[in-house]
Design goal:
It contains twelve helices and three strands. It is mainly alpha-helical. Strand 1 and strand 2 form a beta hairpin. The protein is globular. About 15% of the residues are buried.
Length: about 260
């Protein structure tokens, strides 16, 4: 099938998927009778599909929301967000969520208190929040308004991150063993050089638990990156926005960010 015809088929399938799932509110509402537009009426933009990941549509509104929410990321570089990077995160997240089974959702779903604790920590610790004084209620309201966010949107974003992070822990951390030799090598090769001459480093027995956690995270990260890279290679990822397609092709070999 020619690529243009295939794209049209995917667009129709994706729109049908959106309508069935109720995700395209603006599209479904267009089916209802509407009164004649008056000269003063404001035109309503129909949400469009920008990409499809294994039959799961990513909408332009999803992309807009992801770009706004990028300010919540701890990496300062994401504050200068662009649509290409935001789309890569949405694609990676869609691939991961498709791998989470129903029973996994139950075991990874955070409680309301856990989400509230994450929001509170973000308000106090996120660099941009420190600058904009998000720890105060007034500062937090100004921060949300300035970046086009709401309290509910922030909570939903952090909740989804917790679900994915816990799934990664469950899937990849179990069975990983860190030997005493690995801990000793890290202590000698990575930790000791950080202490200047004349400053006594902590004994290895005191820092072993922390070193073990660091090494565990490194191994989990390596396993996860390889797994996500395979998902991207094996998945059916179609970008329907030509302005985003080139960047997606260049990202298909990388793991992206959940």
């Amino acid at each position: 099938m020619p690529r243009r015809a295939a794209n049209r088929t995917i667009v129709r399938s994706a729109l049908a998927l959106c309508l069935l799932s109720g995700a395209c509110a603006s599209v479904s509402s267009a089916q209802e009778p509407t009164p004649p537009a008056s000269p003063a009426s404001t035109p309503v933009e129909i949400d469009r599909v920008v990409a499809v990941v294994n039959d799961r549509a990513i909408l332009s509104s999803d992309l807009t929301e992801e770009m706004r929410a990028s300010v919540l990321e701890p990496n300062p570089s994401t504050t200068n967000e662009n649509a290409e990077d935001a789309l890569q995160r949405l694609i990676s997240r869609a691939l991961i969520r498709q791998q989470i089974r129903e029973q996994d959702i139950q075991s990874t779903m955070p409680t309301r208190d856990e989400v509230s604790a994450r929001v509170a920590a973000l308000r106090k610790e996120l660099p941009i929040c420190i600058r904009e004084r998000c720890a105060t209620d007034e500062g937090w309201k100004k921060f949300l308004a300035a970046h086009g966010l709401t309290q509910d949107r922030v909570e939903a974003y952090l909740r989804n991150r917790l679900i994915i992070l816990r799934f990664i822990e469950i899937r990849f951390r179990q069975g990983i063993q860190i030997s005493q030799e690995e801990i000793a090598d890290y202590y000698k090769g990575s930790l000791l050089p950080q202490y200047p001459a004349g400053q006594a480093p902590p004994p290895i027995t005191e820092v072993s638990p922390r070193i073990e956690e660091i090494l565990l995270q490194q191994k989990v990260s390596a396993l996860f990156s390889g797994w996500l890279d395979n998902l991207r290679k094996q998945g059916d990822i179609e970008v329907l926005d030509p302005t985003l397609e080139a960047s997606t092709n260049s990202h298909n070999s990388g793991p992206g960010a959940p």
